[in-house]
Amino acid sequence: MNVVVMKKVLSYIKRYRLVVALSLAFAAGSVALTLYVPILTGRAVDLIVAPGDVDFPGILAVLTRIGIAVLLTALMQWLMGVCNNRITYGVVRDIRARAFEKIEMLPLKYVDGHSTGDIVSRVIADVDQFADGLLMGFTQLFTGVITILGTLLFMLSLNVTITLVVVVITPVSLFVARYIATKTFSMFKLQSETRGEQTALIDEMVGNGRVVKAYSREADIQSRFDEINRRLSVCSLKAIFYSSLTNPATRFVNSLVYAGVGVFGAVAAVHGRISVGQLSSFLSYANQYTKPFNEISGVVTELQNALACAARVFELIEEEPQIPEKENAVVLKNPDGSVALQDVSFSYVPDKKLIEKFNLSVKPGQRVAIVGPTGCGKTTVINLLMRFYDVNEGAIRVAGIDIRDMTRRSLRTNYGMVLQETWLKTGTIRDNITMGKPDATEEEIIAAAKASHAHSFIKRLPNGYDTVITEDGGSLSVGQKQLLCITRVMLCLPPMLILDEATSSIDTRTEIKIQEAFARMMKGRTSFIVAHRLSTIQEADIILVMKDGNIIEQGNHESLLSAGGFYANLYNSQFAR
Amino acid sequence: MENVVRSLFVYLRDYRKETVLAPLFKMLEASFELFVPLVMASMIDKGIGNGDISYIIKMSLILLLLAGIGLTSSITAQFFAAKAAVGFAEKLRSALFSHIQGFSFSEEDKLGTSTLITRMTSDINQVQNGVNMVLRLFLRSPFIVFGAMIMAFTIDVKAALIFVVTIPALSGIVFGIMMWTMPLYKKVQGKLDLVLRVTRENLTGARVIRAFAKEEEEKEHFHRENDELNTLQKYVGKISALMNPVTYIVVNAATIMLIYTGALRVDQGWITQGEVVALVNYMAQILVELVKLANLIVTITKALACADRVESVMLMESSMADGTLTESEIAGKTLHTKAAKVEFKNVCLTYQGAGGESLSGLNFRVERGDTTGIIGGTGSGKSSLVNLIPRFYDATKGEVLIDGVNVKDYPIETLRRKTGIVMQKAVLFKGSIRENICWGRKDATDEEIEEALCMSQSKEFVDQKEGRLDFFITQNGKNLSGGQKQRLSIARAMVRKPEILILDDSASALDFATDARLRKAIRETEGDMTVFIVSQRTSSIQHADQIIVLDDGEIAAIGTHEQLLKTCDLYQEIHYSQTGRSSEGGAGK
């Protein structure tokens, strides 16, 4: 599983191969020079033997060399750092971008069925963790590997036997590190999952803080939170502790190597096989040789964590997108407004049938009212018309064309939709109004706002049309938000309209005026209205009566009344007290 | 910065032992490490110098012993550090969450959900990481650095003076870069907030964005924010990448000095060759430690920036003080008064940061068991009025009394227990229907739940859900329709059998028939529940005992339906606009 994830990560890194190559080059250069310095230092030490036996000109020459080597190393180290930052943050940006693009393409079924907090945590927190791991990986893995190889070469050039001592002992640290890493991976994954669960709870409870407070449920929520928090704490402790064992364990091996080099080196020196200076070079190599092993093993655990996080992001990225547009999908232009549903069957879950073999033919400019008891599935019809969901069987045609044969964009922009649940984005009032028509002029915007009676309250806001509203409308009232949503549609006036209980939170005086504007707007436009007002229903050309997700009756007011069915019952019950 | 550390420090209090032990064991490990160059020096000078092989082996065994003790103390330290850091984060998260829950509506309006989520999650994670690293390294590194210096002094005072110059220079560099990058990291985190907000917005608004075919624009928007984040990250990265190379230069410059001075001292016979090696080794240890310290600094800088953000939320006090009356005091006060159930005396409300009053000079009383209708235009203050009763906001002037006692004097929980409010936007939580209804009353029996479902007209659709009361509602009630959510949230309020029931336009998604049945059921409930109904429709409130007509935050008229029809133009206008002119007969809804 790790290999698969790693491969995917690599495919993101591919874009930066030039930078990677540069980084590698700088790493190689700086490591080579870093390794050269101990040799020089060793030589200098050999020139300092005893009182009266010190070669000062020789030492000065060696020291100059050290100086130059050090300056070059520092420069290359910095450049390598810059490259690594570039790669890491670049990859992170690319992954976030891909994840976001996927969000825009996911079928609504996925969005409806997953918690917002969890998806957000994948895109933000997980990617962040991944970045940390990747950066560490790059800075330390490269230099680590190159240092190991370089040190080996330099050591071999000094003395073969002592080098062998180092080579034999060191792999032990790799084994230890590997063992720890495999143990911790599952812990990190558990930690990541628990975090996701916690984020989801925070999102739900903080987002709906008002209800929590109204019911004084703070204590209960707190205990639920603390329960997850407790679990998180337990698996975090395990993950962190186990992974932090790597360092001491490898450092211990490191000390073994150091002692080994000391013993063999000192004995060799006694027999005159190497000089004291060379032994000093060896000792610093012994340090440098095992240090990258420490780092690599540290990196391995960090990478494990990073990969676990990456896996969660990739899961999102690889989620199956909505059915792609057909290759020859047509762009719906100026449709006449006729809509036909032919033998449409649909259900959200396979085993619970909803709409079956439904037929409806709406002529251009007709008004369709959808009525029925609360919760009868009226929004399902909207989901289908807008192609938020695809029909299971049959077809929906607009202007005679199957909506699956046209681009989603052209289908949807030909509908004007006002949903029951208002949604506004962070930005100015103007941004929100011009969503459907970004190039609208000031006059058009004001005209639309006046038509929907939003102008007067917008005018009174601190910065008028340039007032920035925060997440989800923030300080605006439900009614004001709805007025803005209506203005949004008013501005672009598409040929077909979908109005979903749009006016339910607006006071009646305003509503009357809006109704008038709507009437003007609906003239010559095919409209679907999830209706509550009797007048709307009475004036509709077609009434769809829904119950339990099914469309059970269809006709106009008179014909349905005289049929004496469910509709008649519903209508008469309105007089009930 | 220091303040931040101090105020969040309290959450480490329970881990005092661990917090002390972790660095202590680290120091233990470090001190054994400091002996290593000395052992090696005597190995060179005595062992090699005298050709004494058994001495060499003895010394190497000492090295092994030092390594073993180092390992043990290090593992102990890691454990305590992890325990303290994780425990600290757990406490902090819990405290922050509880603090956020204590916010009044005013604070919630001011902050947003997104930023609270980042602070609860990624910010605290960074802080946890910071604490862990600090415990592990922050004492160890300076200890090694200064320890190395002291060891150098024991070898040769003159050579050691180089250490004395080098160490402050290094600390200057390390802290300088830290101070430089810290505000930048804060900026990065702020940008991340923006990226999070766009992501969240696109999930919550998926339908609208797709309906307007704005996917491309939103992508562009995201890419813009994302790219800006990227640029900023790279910039900060460039600066913090300076740390290693610069310290490397300084340490090696010092080494060069050291060798030269060492050469002079050996030449004059003050120290031996082996001791020069030891000195160079100490300098090398400082370098190794500094590399770790530099990495640590990056972590700490980030952690501090994050801690600062966490703290800013922590410091935000709830603007609402809890009432101080005890249950018996309340009972004493309410028992003997013949006070109205609810009374508004000269109440005004100005929202924080708002220009003008949203409610001004409200005066009215509501008797026990009465039903009060509240009607008025959008933005006329209907919701603001009812929000004052359970004390979601505090009246800026005047007082709101329940049973003759000011709402500010009730403990908030007692007050909220008296009231059941159903808000405009129906909100349900992930969990079964039963769990959701039990929000109203924890110990509600199934019979009571059924009764509430019946009254709220939910029974009919609940009967059809799989598992009925056990039917699982997904987050935000996404698998229910708007009307179903409204009815369940009404059931939730009904099940607590509140003294005061407030329906804030909460039947807007119901059809007329259901709405009518609902009102009928509420009227017929036993006991003397006092009811407030906020509505846009006169039909919903025409049977109320009194109707308050609001206009732009002021009471335009109070009376019964019949009275108002005669005396209040505004009410007439609203009524007839909904029913058609009375002469036309109307639908009489």
Please tell me about this protein's structure:
- The complex is a heterodimer of chains A (577) and B (589).
- In chain A, strand 1 and strand 2 form a beta hairpin.
- With 577 residues, chain A is of the alpha/beta class.
- Chain A contains 21 helices and 14 strands.
- The two termini of chain A are 64 Å apart.
- Chain B is of the alpha/beta class and 589 residues long.
- In chain B, the strands form three sheets. Chain B has a six-stranded mixed sheet.
- In chain B, strand 11 and strand 12 form a beta hairpin.
- In chain B, helix 6 packs antiparallel against helix 7 and helix 21 crosses helix 22.
- The C terminus of chain B is likely disordered.
- Classes of the chains: A alpha/beta (577), B alpha/beta (589).
- Chains A and B meet through helix 2, strand 1, strand 2, helix 3 and helix 4 of A and helix 2, helix 3, helix 4, helix 5 and helix 7 of B.
